[in-house]
Structures are given as structure tokens and as C-alpha cells.
Amino acid sequence: MIDLHTHILFNTDDGSKSIEDSVSLIKEEIDNGFKKIVLTPHYMENTKYNLTYLENLNKFNELKDQVKDLDIELYLSNEILVTESIIDLINNNTIKEINNSKYILIELPLNGSIRYLSTVLFNLNTKGYIPIIAHPERYVSLQNKKENIKILLDYDVILQGNLGSMIGTYGNKSKKLYKWFLKNDLYQVLSTDIHRPNKINIKKALKKTSRYIGKNKLDLLTNINPNNIINNLDIEINNKYFTK
Ligand SMILES: [Fe+2]
């Protein structure tokens, strides 16, 4: 499997607090069955989580050196909190797409407005980018009215669910919405979004998700699609929500 969303890179955000924790997290990922991991430190404008790609790259190289004997491939990107300056931030190398592809991971404030996000999605699509929306099941506006997801589906977007949602890591509302997204084929990717060692039982989350959608579908969302994203290939989007 390939994990597209993690906070493993030490001292860059609210994730790993030391290089030792980063190594532990990578070992945990290997144990859970991951072969490739994209490190996606938060980039939040005007907050303390605003390290540039070059600053992250120094830490990334240090960490890579520590795990060079392990069977894992690492990539460095970001999870960007939605902002109108996103294109400028990419162009001036402050933030980084996934493996130089057209895909970029973005998030909303949990209480943010979905309509605000749509302006940014339009601008990104116009420039040829395909945003990957992190954990839509966690957004209050969607928890209150799941049909609001239609606003986002007018654009070329990928929806990425957090595996932990299946086992209630983010509460019941997220769990319920995660299952609804799964049932309607609305996710293209599932990832861990891990921050700390031994916090989320990913094996259990994978097992329960697999029981819910089947092995082949789980393979599509955790292996085939993430691999295509890393290789800048297209992802097939075919959701039941619109074909019913
Ligand atoms: Fe995240």
C-alpha cells in the first residue's frame, strides 16, 4: 500500500516531535503494510506551521538517511490549508505537489465553508492541478448536510478518506459520513493521516474497511489509485452518487 497523507516529518507541524518518533512511525507504517509514504507536513499560512519546502527538505534528507536500511520509499509534499494564494505558493516553491505531479493535498478548517473551497478548486483546475481533498468526512458542513459534497464534485477533485474514521478515531459523525462516502464510491484514496506513534489502530481500520467494501475496492483505494497519483497518471472517478 501507499500512504499519501502523513505527519511523520519531525518538528514541522503537530505531528512527529522528534526524529526518533519519525523513525518509529515509519516502522509502524511498514508493519501495517505500506511500501511508499508521502510525508505531508501542514502548511498553514500565517501560523507557526509555515515551513518552506526547502526547510522541510533538510529534515526529510536527515530522516531518509536514518531509515536507509528499511524497505520503504519516501516522498516529500504538503497538506495545504486552503488559501487563495495556493498557486503562488506552488510557483515560488514554498509548498510542493505530490512527487511533482498535478496532484496536491489540501484541507479545509474543520468548520470552514465548502463554498469558499470551491473558488480555490476552480483556480487550481484552471492551472491543470487536481486537488486531493483531505478527510471530507471530518468537515462539519458536510456532517450537517452530506449533499453539500455535490458543490465539490463540480470540479476535478480526488476525495481522500482517513482510515481511522472507520474505527471512530474522529468521532461518530465522521465514522457515519466515512461509511456513506464508501458506500457511494465517493472516495478515490484512503490514507492514515498519522501524527503520533501507536495512536490509531490502522490494521483494525483496514480490516473493518475491507469487510465493508471488499478486498478489491480497498486495494484500489490504498494501492492502485495512490500509485497512479504518485506517477502523475489519471484516476478513474465513477461514483454511484450520480449514477443512481
Ligand atoms: Fe493531515
Descriptive report:
β8 (158-162), α7 and β9 form a beta-alpha-beta unit. This protein has helices at residues 19-31, 53-66, 86-91, 114-126, 140-144, 149-153, 172-183, 202-213, 215-230, 240-243, and strands spanning 2-3, 36-39, 42-43, 73-76, 79-81, 103-107, 130-134, 158-162, 189-191. It has a 6-stranded parallel beta sheet. By secondary structure, the chain is of the alpha/beta class. α8 (202-213) crosses α9. The protein has a single domain, classed as Metal-dependent hydrolases (TIM Barrel). The radius of gyration is 17 Å and the shape is globular. Residues 5, 7, 79, 134, 193 line the site of fe (ii) ion.
Q: What's the rounded overall pLDDT mean?
A: 95
Q: What is the CATH architecture descriptor? A: Alpha-Beta Barrel
Question: What percent of the residues sit in helical stretches (DSSP H or I)?
Answer: 40-55%
Global outline: globular
Tag the structure with descriptive keywords.
41% helix; binds fe (ii) ion; TIM Barrel; three-stranded parallel beta sheet; 10 helices; 244 residues; six-stranded parallel beta sheet; alpha/beta
